[in-house]
Amino acid sequence: MNTAKVPKGTDATGATGATGAADATDRWFATLGEALTGAGVPEEQVARTADELRGHLAESGTGPEEEFGPAGRFAASLGGLAPAPGEPDGAAERWTWTADLFNDRRMLAVHGDQGWEVEHLDPLGRFVCRRAPGAPLAWEYRREVIGLRRRAKVLGELDPEGWELCGEWLVYGYFKRPKAATTGPAATLATVPATPDRHLFLSRRGKALLALWAAGSGAAYLSLGLPGLAILIALGGSLTAVWTARLETARGRVAAAAGNGDAERPGP
């Protein structure tokens, strides 16, 4: 029989190693928080960043030093963290753009990878964005149907995953989260593309519908004047949104019938 004494404060399963790893993790995050606070990052955002990084580590099963490197150096790489929504930042780039409902998710992915964070949607349905100076984070987005009956369910499912509602348009809700929540330091951009010159991104179907609306709008304007034109444009946008929402909901039900547990939430 092995009668070797187990060191005080541990057990045969190696609890001392686990405790030491937890202490090292806490020290790493304490150093990160001090560095970010010293760089002027608001406490609320420091806490949010720490929560997102801890969530990533829980999924990856690695330690912060192994995953992100020294805390001080990693904090320096996050020097371009975007300010929390609603906070002023005169140094940030600003850009507003729009896309049709067939092309918006693709363009959100493209622009999110370029560091553009959606602040909100304006009354015309345009994405009002900012990009922090320095080394901004990449962002990821998703669009969900959030009618009255689905709203609470969708928000309840997405909030624990770090998704934040950043805008609504008709029956749709747009959600964002920094890619650092899933990819770690790789979400910080080493190079920043120039601000796009374009502000409108239409798909082929969107261009075809626009041509039809233009023809109808001309007829409406000639026969009914500006009020008729406005009514036609608003009606066309609403019908398109309802149609695409019905298509997504139908796809979710088909996938649910096939046994896909996440089917009620169409993917981004």
Please describe what this structure looks like:
With 268 residues, the chain is of the alpha+beta class. The chain is 49% helix and 15% strand. It is built from 8 helices and 7 strands; from the N terminus they run ααααβαβββαββαβα. It has helices spanning 15-38, 43-60, 64-68, 71-77, 104-113, 151-158, 180-183, 204-257, and strands at 93-99, 117-121, 127-131, 139-145, 164-169, 172-178, 200-201. The strands form 2 sheets. A 4-stranded mixed beta sheet has the order 2-3-1-7, with helices on one face. The chain has a 3-stranded antiparallel beta sheet with strand order 4-6-5, sandwiched between helices. Strand 2 (117-121) and strand 3 form a beta hairpin. The longest helix has 54 residues, at 204-257. The model is unreliable at 1-12, 80-88 and 260-268 (pLDDT under 50).
Tally of extended strands? 7
Global geometry: elongated
What is the straight-line distance between the termini?
Answer: 59 Å
Widest beta sheet: strand line-up: 2-3-1-7
How much of the sequence is in beta strands? 5-15%
CA radius of gyration: 24 Å
| Helical fraction | 40-55%
Order of helices and strands: HHHHEHEEEHEEHEH
Structural class: alpha+beta
Tally of contiguous helical segments: 8
Would you tell me the overall average pLDDT? 74
Low-confidence runs: 1-12, 80-88, 260-268
Main beta sheet: strand number and arrangement?
4 strands, mixed
